[in-house]
Structure formats: structure tokens, C-alpha cells
Amino acid sequence: MLGNPYDRDCPTRQLLDRIGDQWTVLIVGALVDGPLRFTEIGKRVEGISQKVLTQTLRSLVRDGILIRTAYPVIPPKVEYELTQLGRNLAEPLELLDRWARRNMDQVTAARAAYDAENAATAS
């Protein structure tokens, strides 16, 4: 189903919103090397609250990007891992990660120049 992501009601736009979310990008990246438990994901993705992690994981499972496996043991053990769809998504996200790392110095310089110019203008 192809749609127009510029239409606010388009399902494609909703999916782009999900995969463009900072937490989705980081969670998918954390799971590239294999399955992790909830607490392990939380440790790798610093700054995410338990509530947001729970909500994001649930959404990613619903979208077919992750699979949640609950093991019948005491204490309960649950792991999350990328599905094939999730591994396909990880590829372009890894490219974005590399782009960000490669260009961060330029972005930092542009921000500093912008802030300096606007600080002078505001005075």
C-alpha cells in the first residue's frame, strides 16, 4: 500500500513518524547485534524512561519490527529482537548513524555560527 506521507492521515506518515522517533532509532540500533532483555535495552539507550521504553517496544512489536519472546521461567525472562523487517530497517538507520557521526563537527560549527550571529542581532 503506497500512500502520500505528506497527507496527515496517511498510514505511511504514521510509519515514518514511528521510525523517525529518536527512541526507535536507538532501540533498533541497540538490537542490531542480537536479542536483549528490557533492562539491557534500557542500559544501552541512556536517558529513556521505563515508560517510554515500554511504549516504544510495544509499538515496534505491533509494527512487526521487533519480536517479543517470553520464556516460561521464574523469574520471568523476556527478550526483544529484530524481525527480518527490523533488520531491513536497521540498514538505512545505520547509514544515518554514520552520516551523523561523520558530519557532527560541521553541524556543531554551523550551530555556533548561527548562535553567534543571532546573539549579535539580538543585542
UniProtKB/TrEMBL annotation:
The keyword DNA-binding applies. InterPro entries: HTH_HxlR, WH-like_DNA-bd_sf, WH_DNA-bd_sf. Keywords: DNA-binding, Transcription, Transcription regulation. PROSITE patterns: HTH_HXLR. Pfam families: HxlR (PF01638). Residues 10-108 form the HTH hxlR-type domain. SUPFAM superfamilies: Winged helix' DNA-binding domain. It comes from the Bacteria. The keyword Transcription regulation applies. This is Winged helix-turn-helix transcriptional regulator. The lineage of its organism: Bacteria, Bacillati, Actinomycetota, Actinomycetes, Pseudonocardiales.
